[in-house]
Design goal:
heterodimer, A: alpha+beta, three-stranded antiparallel sheet, 8 strands, 47% helix, globular, B: mainly alpha, 13 helices
Chain lengths: 372, 362
């Protein structure tokens, strides 16, 4: 009896994941080449949410650009406000009152917690933990949004900070509400950890998956939790202290492996550190003005300035060029998520479709910031 | 032994019996699926700090009925390049076997359509046909997501059928019968105590076979959006949805019948005990869904072949030896032994093996 060799002919096929897909966190599109379930190649295609914000800003006054920055990373509008205001203040040499600096720090750290809550919740949702983690975390995010609502009447695009300070002082009910939040929040974070930190399935899914090596992370100039999870202790709040961050004591949580699990853990630990900063800021909050005297139309001297902060998703920078007029000549945003995304293909190759969603979720992007 | 179609204490002739029970099963499945959908949504909402459906009727009880009505009057869209015949046939092939399984499930003593003496074999054989419908749907839709989902379904059913069936053999050994009616009658104590490992294996494997979390890879809403029924709408989608929940109902009913003592229980009437137990098992399924993340396809396979399969074999061996050595021993004596065996084995296996994680070089 003769046996006949039979080879099954297979070929990779292309699947478009996105732009309309529940797990692409917006309208990102991944043109994925699959060999069965294994990813052979992934080509990111973005720009579906391009609104030309950088060009729009060149037609506006310096103060009028602030609402535009809200619409960059809409999950961290306060941080965007802050980074832009820092850049303009640097460009025009405008001082900021101490109380305003403290308020800015409080807002930025609250925003970091709110943003990380969404990031972690969405990541766990991508893992397939059906809705539970994200609904829990949105519950806590609501409390932060309530706080923001008190200070500026908005819940998503705050437009709260101004060049030279913030738009208005904290209302009377804000401080007690913040204290209450600071008291409750550590318990909630512990609860999330109890529920999922050591979950066997989560460990199997996320540990060792989507590794971003230290060297690669540095070479692509990744920043934020993505970089720190790869074991690089780089945080602008420590490396280049802006505002008044040199006054606060906090640790920089880092990972070691650079996998999805580390990125998830780094974000959770950062929430704890943010709470520490918030407590110190609340203790040191001075009385006084919240806004320095700034002309209605700012005309910075001819020159350029780069203001950057440690936004929840990484180094958010605004590069402004002034030609002496009332509008910026050039308005460039260094969006952390766009740069973090460049490692996507390297992290994904060889993993499976399910991991693709997970790795993509662990980078935590906001498409409005990627596309601008 | 001749196939005994009529329970001896059931009045009336064969056709009356057949007609009555067909109607009962149809109504039971439809009503309980609607109730299950409502129950799942409410229970999940409570666990997730939300409200859930609460508008239609008292406690939102009529929400599923309203949804069912909506699904029926929706437009039926068939993709332009779909395989029309198979696309049409697939929901039927997926749904009918689930209904057929209930023919042998006793609601109470003697209350069942057919007391087959090959009951379990019949269930195992018939319930696998659903997979065929799912694969037909995935293939005929001409959609890559559907195809991926359908492939996952076939792979998982092929793997999980083995440990599931093997874990049932322990129960069959204990009772010496394949008839569900006789299995319930043999349960002086619920077999979950006598066959704890078998229960664990069966429940885990069954969850994988019916695509419930954490093994819901076939649908995987965060990866494949909806998996095999992504291209279905209207009542065809409704049938898939119905089949899915009816499968959960089947598993709950089987766990109840085989491991929880079926309709037996004190005080309450028999049929009520059956319903209560089915509801309790379904609640556990919902609970698991809200709690754990989803596994990956290779981990799903690893779980079937590295964990469940060897454990099912060992469980079968242990049970067989016990019955061979002490044929007339009281079931109570087996409880501590089997629990000890289960704990040792599960601990051992979870130390020895890890769920695989692997990157493929491309």
């Amino acid at each position: 009896m003769t046996t006949k060799e039979v080879t099954i002919q297979t070929e990779p096929f292309v699947v478009n994941i996105g732009p309309a897909h529940p797990s692409t966190h917006g309208v990102f599109r991944m043109r994925t080449t699959l060999d069965g379930e294994v990813i052979v190649n992934m080509e990111p295609i973005f720009g579906y949410l391009h609104r030309g914000i950088e060009k729009l800003a060149e037609e506006r006054t310096y103060g009028g650009c602030i609402p535009l920055t809200d619409r960059l990373d809409y999950l961290a509008s306060m941080s965007n406000n802050m980074a832009y205001c820092l850049a303009v203040e640097k460009l025009a040499g405008i001082p900021v009152p101490l109380r305003a600096e403290y308020i800015r720090v409080i807002m930025a750290e609250l925003q970091r917690i709110a943003s990380h809550l969404i990031a972690v919740g969405a990541f766990l949702n991508d893992c397939g933990a059906f809705m539970t983690p994200i609904v829990y975390m949105i519950r806590e995010r609501e409390k932060i949004l309530d706080l923001f609502d008190m200070v500026c009447g908005q819940r998503l695009t705050y437009n709260y900070m101004r060049v030279g300070g913030v738009s208005q002082d904290l209302p009377a009910e804000f401080i007690p509400a913040l204290r209450k939040f600071l008291k409750e929040m550590p318990g909630w974070i512990n609860e999330y950890d109890r529920l999922l930190k050591q979950n066997e399935i989560l460990l199997a899914r996320a540990k060792g998956v989507g590794i971003l090596p230290r060297e690669l992370a540095i070479n692509i100039s990744a920043s934020g939790p993505v970089l720190r999870a790869s074991g690089v202790e780089w945080d602008l709040r420590r490396a280049d202290p802006y505002s008044i961050y040199d006054r606060f004591e906090f640790d920089i949580p880092t990972g070691s492996a650079g996998d999805c699990y580390d990125r998830y853990r780094v974000r959770v630990e950062e929430m704890r550190q943010s709470l520490r900063i918030l407590e110190q800021a609340l203790k040191g909050l001075p009385e006084g003005e919240v806004r320095s005297e700034v002309p209605h139309l700012i005309r910075p001297p001819v020159g350029e300035a780069y203001g950057h902060i440690e936004a929840p998703r990484g180094e958010l920078g605004f590069y402004l060029v002034s030609d002496g007029s009332i509008a910026p000549y050039r308005f460039h945003v260094r969006a952390p998520t766009l740069i973090n995304l460049t490692a996507l293909n390297d992290m994904m190759k060889g993993w499976k479709v399910a991991d693709l969603i997970l790795i993509f979720g662990s980078i935590d992007i906001c498409l409005a910031e990627v596309d601008r | 032994m001749a196939m005994q179609m009529l329970p001896p204490d059931w009045p009336g002739n064969f056709w009356a019996h057949w007609g009555i029970f067909t109607v009962i099963i149809l109504v039971f499945i439809l009503v309980s699926v609607l109730m299950f959908i409502w129950f799942e949504r409410r229970a999940m909402a409570v666990m997730q700090a939300r409200l859930g459906p609460n508008r239609a009727g008292p406690f939102g009880l009529f929400q599923s009925a309203a949804d069912a009505l909506k699904v029926m009057i929706k437009e039926d869209i068939v993709p332009a390049r779909a395989d029309k015949v198979i696309h049409w046939l697939a929901p039927v092939v997926a749904f009918v076997p689930v209904m057929m399984v209930f023919a042998v499930v006793p609601f109470q003593g003697g209350a069942l359509l057919a007391d087959l003496n090959i009951g379990i074999l019949y269930i195992v054989a018939i319930s696998s046909v659903t997979t065929l419908g799912i694969f037909m749907a995935g293939w005929a839709s001409n959609n890559k997501y559907s195809l991926l989902g359908a492939m996952r379904q076939v792979a998982s059913v092929v793997s999980y059928e083995i440990p599931v069936v093997l874990s049932l053999v322990g129960v069959i050994l204990l009772t010496g019968s394949l008839s569900l009616q006789q299995i319930v009658q043999a349960q002086e104590i619920p077999f979950i105590l006598v066959q704890p490992l078998g229960f664990l294996l069966f429940f885990t494997g069954a969850l994988a076979e019916i695509n419930r979390a954490p093994f819901d890879l076939t649908e995987a809403d965060s990866e494949l959006v909806a998996g095999y029924f992504i291209e279905y709408s209207g009542m065809k989608f409704g049938l898939f949805f119905l089949a899915e929940y009816a499968e959960a109902l089947v598993v709950s009913a089987l766990v109840t019948t085989l491991f929880l003592g079926g309709w037996r229980g004190p005080l309450l009437p028999d049929w009520l005990w059956f319903l209560v137990k089915v509801g309790a098992v379904f609640f556990v399924i919902v609970w698991i869904r809200t709690t754990v993340p989803r596994v990956r396809i290779d981990q799903l396979m690893a779980l079937a072949w590295k964990f469940l399969f060897p454990l099912a074999l060992i469980n079968l061996l242990v049970t067989a030896v016990e019955i061979l050595v002490w044929p007339d021993v009281s079931l109570w004596l087996l409880v501590p032994i089997n629990f000890a065996v289960m704990i040792v084995l599960v601990l051992l296996w979870s130390k020895l093996f890890k769920l695989g994680w692997g990157r493929v070089n491309v």
